[in-house]
User: Fold this.
Amino acid sequence: MKRQSKGDFAFQIVVYVLVALLCVIFLYPLIYILSLSFSSPEAVYYGQVTFFIKDYGTSSSCARS
Amino acid sequence: MKEEVSVLAESRESSKTLPGKTGKKKLRAWYKNWQLYLLALPALAIIAVFCYAPMYGIVIAFKDYNVIQGIGGSPWADPIFKHFTEFVTDPYFLDMLWNTLRLSLCSLLVFPLPILFALLLNEIRVKSLRTTVQIISYAPYFISLVVSVSMCFTFLEYTQDRVGIINRMIMLFGLEPVKFMESAAWFPWIYVLSGMWQGLGWWSITYVAALTAIDPTLYEAAEIDGASRLRKIWHINIPGLLPIVSITLIMNLGNMLNVGFEKVLLMQTDLNYASSNIISTYVYEKTLGSVIKQYSYGTAIGLFNNIISLVLLLGANFTAKKLGGETIL
Assistant:
């Protein structure tokens, strides 16, 4: 690998930060909806689900009934 | 697509080799390339059957259509343009036109985002990471429209007993929660941004493909000249993308008045009606969605819509031609 200049190195860091941010934006809503779908209705109702599944169950209704 | 291009190329060549376009020689040129014309035939047949044959129905825009008498039997509208004048003098007319244009202008505003995303992807040096990011970015595209709209409602809701995740975040920062789906001012932005979330990765595919087609010797030359990476993007990548950008822009301008009807209809609530009432949902409202089905009126509005779209498309194409860019016609 060639040595990079300082500017190019900073540029590379900016690129990776942006890409990571975009990945979060793309994935978070999908994971959130999945977690909502598999959490218990109570947890969904009281807004306890933010990222991970809370009180696993398949009988739950979706947040928007 | 490819066949048509090659047919064009062939016919151009043969017309060059055959001086004097007498009927007989023209016929011979056709005969010489008959296989190519045969290949183009299915495509032409599809266009004829599914695009041109149903156009016969446009006639009801000039009639007082009723189901019993049918298309042919219905009486002609009294002044022939009755339904058109009715639409133009509709109290909602200017509102609808402005709402439609505003939605497409907002869509145009975010039009560069997929290009930027493609440039960003191109800058990831690790190939496995790049493909992973690409696949992640395609994921939202495969969610159906109904699901994605209901996701919007879920995330943005703010009612007595339910607060969506976005409003919870807003409240976390101590700001006033917003009733997004019930506000006319927010509607265009929700529409555009949720569409962008879904389509960003997908729409960037063409640009990524165009970027890989750029001659690598250009980069080497730039390297020798000591160009930084931003400079390389500015002087090599962006000029390399311009032809494709201009074509997609022309296509988007042609579709300006045909903004996604289903999505707007799904996102429409009584409270954001002031900005979500667009021409195409109004057509639905007047024809299939209402008890009194005004088919003629709906068709007239649709035709009006299409004529304006055509004018916009041709205008955009003309401008691109004048500016010396790529055109589609």
